[in-house]
Design goal:
- The structure is a homodimer.
- In chain A, about 40% of the residues are buried.
- Chain A folds into 3 domains: about 220 residues, Rossmann fold (3-Layer(aba) Sandwich); about 80 residues, Tyrosyl-Transfer RNA Synthetase (Orthogonal Bundle); about 80 residues, RNA-binding S4 domain (Structural Genomics Hypothetical 15.5 Kd Protein In mrcA-pckA Intergenic Region, Chain A).
- The radius of gyration of chain A is 27 Å and the shape is elongated.
- The first copy, chain A, has a 6-stranded mixed sheet, with helices on both faces.
- Chain A has about 425 residues and is α/β, with parallel strands linked by helices.
- Chains A, B: It catalyses: tRNA(Tyr) + L-tyrosine + ATP = L-tyrosyl-tRNA(Tyr) + AMP + diphosphate + H(+).
- Chains A, B: Pfam families: SYY_C-terminal (PF22421), tRNA-synt_1b (PF00579).
- Chains A, B: This is Tyrosine--tRNA ligase.
């Protein structure tokens, strides 16, 4: 095998989706050497188990890690049980309450269970920070801290902004990048993967390795995945797609992303080649309905995390519910004793939490009776006119109830 | 015994020489309670054995500690083997090279040997930081660091100034006040003593004790002692009086302090009462030669560190050398083969390191031949006129050489 050629091939694959690669030439050289010597690269990725809520956005670097695995390299997962107890200051404006080690361990178990849907568990080296930090003496901690200057850490956007705005920065928080950097020394990382928000911390690892006279890791930074509303995907924005969500619901959420978001999902979640991305765009340009592409995309993504069979069932379910204008197969039934206005139906059936929510939704035009959009809160379904199977009332595309009338049931009863 | 009255009496003694007492009312209350309960106050003083060069300026807080001991309180000496390895950032513009634990231990042994000339060794509790820091886990270190904010530590003059001037502040240096503060929690200090430059660190101890719901220590801050040139005493300024210096040399250096400095030496080194200080000033005002008072002061101070007998011998030696215009008993002899100018004599005799230094000193009027001040660098001692024992040439008051002429020696030779 021509090592140069093979390294070039690998680099093309690995660069897919990456926003920054620091520096490209070093990674190419590392790949070449790895191919020549048969020694896999050690590719580090840190997990901060501050919670066990994993969503599609979190998965982007893990997908990249899996790609390294598939190319024969060594995945090194660092469970940040110490950094999690500090809480990564990246992108937030206040200290987090410190987690107990107990909470961290519980979160870590739940978290890794989810990422092993993508990362090959058998071929991953899993290391806990406690392995080297549990017995780190204070003298070593101080030596480690002394490798960084205050000015260097205050160059970190988050620290500086908070300091300048008078928002408290606990001195312990300065240790977040320091510990993450030391991890790279300990595990001898060749590459560290992370989101763009990890750039500062990953570069700190390069500094520390250089100080130690070690070979220096490359930084591969992945962009943030947009959420359902186009902002970055985040649980706190409520625009996320959790990995543990029911596949049918994942499918439905994926179908609700904007057409423009298909490209980043393709590139970042599926690691499609630029050619494939261009081919998809060409299909739309030539007049094909974007929904067809979105159906394919959603099926592939759900399949990636839940398997092909579930993905197919989810797609069928979705098409039955929305695309073919059919109601989903199992709709709860609400039986009316007599004629009720729409607000009362929505509230009493449990479709809304309150009458005021019901009124608001009707006002917004989100409520349908059969195919008809209801805009009058006083609207009543004509019980006599209703067929015996009742009328399907829905809010938006995903909240349904089948309204049947007690009198209609009676009328049907055999005499 | 009336506790209130006795506490008041103690406070008057303890306030002597102190520049700041934070807060006075709290110390009074602590003293009262101590007298009532018979439980001595725990008075903390940290030693940073970054070197074993102890001078009179360092001794000021130890003199105060001895006073607490004499009043029945408990001296608690903290050997800062961890803080010494950081190096106190106070009053310096750069990081210090870190000391090894070995060096720190050696320095500590030399240092304590000197302070026990003042502090009562039998009644002092000596604690090494390593006792609690050697096994401090990283998780605790982080918790401790988190008790302080970055803004709080950057309020520390030295850190802020260096940060703003772009001079490197190592992140480990932030731990200096944190560790010193934690020491106060560990030993349960009621009072912490220190120089004015320790104010920030000692107040940090109050913060941490408050956080911990403990009774809070008082801060007693001693002023800095002026050195021989009036600037603060410091080895690096070369204006210091080391404790281990030969008593006769200590005596001579003390005699060279300015008349204005007698008052702070009296107040800070001897802890004289304000009445005694006023009485001394009155003697000068009434026409007494300040040199007599300086002789008394020097004898008392040398006696404090070296004992009364040595102090008296030193005084007698000094008076023989300078005061009675006699040359000291042992003067090195420099034999001239022929007539030399003054610069050549100074250089060849080794009294100056170079001819240019010799020229400078003559120009400054610091050079004497016998009783005559020499201002002409070309000046030659008349060999014929010189008596057989030669001429004493001196620079200032303490550098001497006896110049004899080979011809004079020959002339004396018995024929």
């Amino acid at each position: 095998m021509d090592a140069k050629k093979e390294a070039g091939r690998q680099l093309v694959l690995l660069e897919r989706g990456a926003e920054e690669l620091i520096p490209r030439g070093e990674l190419l050289a590392k790949l070449e050497r790895s191919i020549e010597t048969g020694v896999p690269l050690r590719v580090k990725l840190g997990i901060d188990p501050t919670s066990n809520a994993v969503h599609l956005g979190h998965m982007v670097p893990y997908g990249k890690l899996r790609q390294f695995q598939d190319l024969g390299h060594q995945a090194v997962l660092i469970i940040g049980d110490y950094t999690a107890s500090i809480g990564d200051p990246t992108g937030r404006n206040a200290e987090r309450p410190a987690l107990t080690m107990e909470q961290v361990r519980e979160n870590a178990a739940g978290y890794t269970e989810q990422i092993f849907r993508i990362v090959d568990r058998e071929k991953a080296e899993v290391r806990w920070q406690s392995e080297w930090y549990e017995s780190l003496p204070l003298s070593e901690t101080l030596r480690l801290a002394g490798a960084f200057s205050l000015a260097q850490l205050l160059a970190h956007e988050t620290f500086r902004a908070r300091y300048e705005q008078g928002v408290r920065v606990g001195v312990h928080e300065l240790f977040y990048p320091v510990l993450q950097a030391w991890d790279s020394v300990v595990v001898g990382a060749d590459v560290e993967l992370g989101g763009m928000d990890q750039k500062f911390n990953i570069l700190a690892g390069r500094d520390l390795q250089r100080d130690r006279g070690m070979e220096i890791q490359c930084a591969m930074l992945m962009p943030l995945l947009p959420g359902l509303d186009g902002r970055k995907m985040s649980k706190s924005f409520g625009n996320d797609i959790p990995i543990l969500l029911d596949p049918a619901e994942q499918f439905a959420r994926l179908m609700s992303i904007s057409d423009e978001c298909m490209e980043p999902y393709r590139r970042l979640v599926l690691l499609d080649s630029p050619e494939d991305c261009r081919a998809a765009a060409a299909r739309v340009a030539s007049g094909e309905n974007p929904m067809r592409l979105k159906l394919e995309l959603a099926e592939r993504i759900v399949g990636r995390f839940g398997g092909a069979a579930r993905a197919q069932r989810s797609r069928e379910e979705w098409e039955r519910r929305f695309s073919r204008k059919e109601a989903p197969s199992e709709i709860p039934v609400f039986t009316c004793a007599g004629s009720l206005d729409m607000c009362a139906i929505l509230k009493q059936s449990g479709l809304t939490a309150s009458a005021s929510e019901a009124r608001r939704l009707v006002g917004e035009g989100a409520v349908y009776a059969g195919e008809e959009r209801i805009t009058d809160t006083g609207y009543r379904i004509d019980a006599a006119a209703a067929e015996s199977e009742g009328v399907v009332v829905r809010i938006g595309r995903r909240r349904f109830v089948r309204v049947v009338f007690a009198s209609a049931i009676e009328a049907e009863r055999p005499e």
